[in-house]
Structures are given as structure tokens and as C-alpha cells.
Design brief:
The chain is of the alpha/beta class. 16% of the residues lie in helices and 43% in strands. It folds into 2 domains: 2-80, OB fold (Dihydrolipoamide Acetyltransferase, E2P); 84-228, Trna Endonuclease, Chain: A, domain 1.
């Protein structure tokens, strides 16, 4: 299953601005401020200056920027630069056979609050929370987490409490690079230590890649997770 992201156009990336949600791009010899839908500066993962990028027009009338960053050409495909597309790819795939292990899933809620926690997806049938984390990496083995995230730590602490209250939790780590072959969990990270505590309470963790094809994004392959000491 795929999710439609609309018409795409090509530009050239100039640089990121101080505000991590903004960058400048060149389109047809004109410079535009562009929205960067990423939880942290892309410079932490990539050197984008001067590179070709794909953009889409913002559909929100009151948006500060006219365009949003989507992807960059990479090998024979694209590397996604919009972290929210991982969530959309999972959501589009939720009823497919690929996610059969989730069990009954006739009632799906997006960004539903469960005891104060804002879920990415919530399956009401089975009280199952799905948390989606996206990663950007160029190597075939992607390390998770790539950067320190106080927000991600807080989320896992909340998920730990919800597991103790009887909720089911699936933690999906999704590579925005379709060529990543595996995800290595950094055992030295505080986040992974907390993730393991959650797994001890029943949380399940899976790795996936997603891919841009034309104007659609899909959950591409399931990839293995391994512990990196």
C-alpha cells in the first residue's frame, strides 16, 4: 500500500537556516524559503548544499513557506528528507498482510491521545500503540539513535508506564533510505537501554525501509535489528 504525496518539483538546496524547520532552495533561478519537516537539522546526517532536491507546494493557506522539502535523488531511487512520510507509509500499510502480526485492526486512530500520550497510531480493537521513528543514514548499516533526543527519551518513559497499565506497544524504526540493509541499536545509548526495558515489559520493535516511487511513498522492506556494543 502507498500514500500519495502530490505533485513534486525539482530545486537546488542552498543551505539550512538557524531555525531547524527552514532552509533556502533555488527554483528556476529564484531563491525561496522552504519548510524542512525534520525533527533536527539535516546537517547532522547529510551534506545537502548544492544538491538537487524534490519539493512539493504547501497546501496550508497560512503556511510561512510556499514549498516543503521531500527528498533528494540517491542512487537509482530517492532518500526521503521528510520524517513524517515514514508515519504516512506505515499508516497506508496498516491493513495490509505485511503488518499481519498486529492482529485485529479494524479501528485505527491517528495521533490519538492515550492517558495523555499522543500516539502516532492507535489500534482501538486491541489497545495497541504504534510509535514510528524515522532515521536518515547513507551506510548500509544505520545506527539508531543517530542523535540525542530528549523527546524520544520522554516518549519511551511514557510508553513504559503504558505497558505497565496493560497497553500493547509496537516500536517501528523506519529508514528513509531504501538501501539500508539493517539497523544497529547503539547499546551505549540511554535511549536503547530504556528501549530494552520496554521490550522486557512486552514492547515489540521492528525495522523497515520506505521508498518514494513517482508521487507515492510506501513501506518497502522489513530489515533486521541488531545490537551494536
Amino acid at each position: 500500500m502507498m500514500t500519495e504525496i502530490g505533485e513534486l518539483l525539482e530545486g537546488r538546496f542552498i543551505h539550512e537556516l538557524k531555525n531547524r524547520f527552514l532552509c533556502e532552495v533555488e527554483i528556476d533561478d529564484s531563491v525561496f524559503e522552504c519548510y524542512v519537516p525534520s525533527s533536527c537539522h539535516l546537517a547532522n546526517f547529510l551534506k545537502l548544499e548544492g544538491k538537487r532536491v524534490l519539493l512539493r507546494k504547501n497546501s496550508t493557506p497560512k503556511s510561512r513557506t510556499e514549498y516543503a522539502l521531500v527528498a533528494m535523488p540517491y542512487k537509482r531511487s530517492y532518500l526521503l528528507l521528510n520524517s513524517s512520510l515514514a508515519n504516512r507509509a506505515v499508516e497506508a500499510c496498516i491493513h495490509s498482510r505485511r503488518l499481519y502480526f498486529l492482529g485485529k485492526r479494524s479501528s485505527i486512530r491517528k495521533e490519538h491521545r492515550v492517558d495523555g500520550y499522543k500516539t502516532d497510531l492507535f489500534i482501538s480493537d486491541t489497545k495497541t500503540i504504534i510509535e514510528v521513528k524515522s532515521i536518515i543514514a547513507l551506510d548500509e548499516a544505520a545506527v539508531f539513535p543517530t542523535v540525542y533526543s530528549e523527546r524520544a527519551l520522554k516518549q519511551l518513559k511514557q510508553l513504559k508506564e503504558l505497558l505497565q497499565r496493560g497497553y500493547k506497544v509496537w516500536y517501528f524504526i523506519v529508514s528513509l533510505n531504501p538501501y539500508v540493509q539493517k539497523i544497529q541499536l547503539d547499546s551505549r545509548s540511554e535511549l536503547i537501554k530504556l528501549l530494552l526495558e520496554c521490550e522486557g515489559l512486552g514492547m515489540r520493535t521492528k525495522g523497515f525501509t520506505c521508498r518514494l516511487k513517482g508521487k507515492q511513498v510506501s513501506l518497502d522492506s522489513e530489515i533486521p535489528l541488531e545490537m551494536l556494543s
